Amino acid sequence: MAGVRGPIARSTCGGLLLVGLTVGLGHAWLPAAASDAQADLPAILLSRQLLAARNLEVGDTIELSGDPSGANRRRFRIAGAYEPMPDPIRVTSERLEVRLHLPDLLDLTADPDDPLAAEALSAINVKLKNPEEAGAFARELAARVPIVGVRASRGAEGDRNPFVVLGRFHLAIAVLTLTTSAVFLLALMVLLADERREAVGTLRLIGLTRGRVLLQVLLEGALIAGAGALFGVAFAALTEGAFNRYFQWRYDTALVFVQITPSIAWRSVAMALPLGMAASVLASWALVRGETLKLVRR
Amino acid sequence: MRALAFAWRSLTRRRGRTMLGILGIAAAGALMFDMLLLSRGLLVSVREMLDSVGFDVRVLASEGLPQSRVPLEHALDAALALASLPEVAAAVPFRIGEAEAVMGGDRPPSIAVFAIGSTTNRIWAIVDGRDLPEGDEQSVVVNERLAERLQAAPGDDIEIRGRCSAGPSILPPITVRIAGVASFPFESGAQLTMATRFAVLDRLCERPPGEADLIMVASRPESGPDAAVDAIRKARPDLYAFSNDEVIERFETVGFSYFRQISAALAIVTVSFGVVLITVLLTVGVNQRLGEIAALRAIGFSRRRVAGDVLWESVLLVAIGGAVAIPLGLALSMWLDAILRSLPGVPATLHFFVFEPRALWLHAALLAAVAVGAALYPMWLVARLPIATTLRREFVS
Question: B-chain residues within 8 Å CB-CB of A123?
Answer without folding.
Answer: 166
